[in-house]
């Protein structure tokens, strides 16, 4: 299984402004842990939660004061399963759910 990480415009903008707090490499490693926990049902050390209400199909990862709200989609190409981790929103904890 291959994990492909994609970012929204808001997430890219936040990462560019706050590169000292979180980097794309850190999000990539968190994405692989999230996929292992959600899809493969492995026990990983990640603060992950399925969201409710208007955020019903989204999940969030908590790392310090930063929250990553994301979607997971599965596709198949050339008999290989690809999981797309779409980082919809990356922000400080007080601003992420606006």
Question: Nutshell version of this structure?
Answer:
By secondary structure, the protein is an alpha+beta fold.
Spell out the key features of this protein.
2 helices, alpha+beta, 98 residues, globular, 24% helix, 5-stranded mixed sheet, 5 strands
Description of the molecule:
It is a single chain. The protein is 24% helix and 40% strand. It is α+β, with helices and mostly antiparallel strands. A five-stranded mixed β-sheet has the order 1-5-4-3-2. The longest helix is centred in the first third of the chain and has 15 residues, at 24-38. The protein is globular, with a radius of gyration of 13 Å. The protein starts with a strand and ends in a 6-residue tail after the last strand.
Question: How does the SSE layout of this entry go?
Answer:
Elements: E1 2-7, H1 9-17, H2 24-38, E2 48-50, E3 59-63, E4 66-77, E5 80-92
Parallel strand pairs: 1-5
Antiparallel strand pairs: 2-3, 3-4, 4-5
């Amino acid at each position: 299984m291959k994990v492909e990480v994609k970012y929204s415009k808001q997430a890219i903008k936040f990462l560019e402004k706050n590169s000292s707090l979180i980097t794309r490499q850190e999000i990539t490693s968190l994405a692989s842990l999230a996929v292992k926990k959600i899809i493969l049902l492995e026990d990983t050390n990640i603060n992950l939660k399925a969201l409710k209400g208007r955020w019903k199909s989204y999940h969030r990862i908590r790392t310090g004061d930063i929250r990553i709200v994301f979607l997971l989609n599965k596709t198949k190409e050339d008999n290989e399963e690809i999981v797309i981790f779409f980082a919809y929103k990356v922000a400080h904890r007080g601003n992420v759910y606006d």
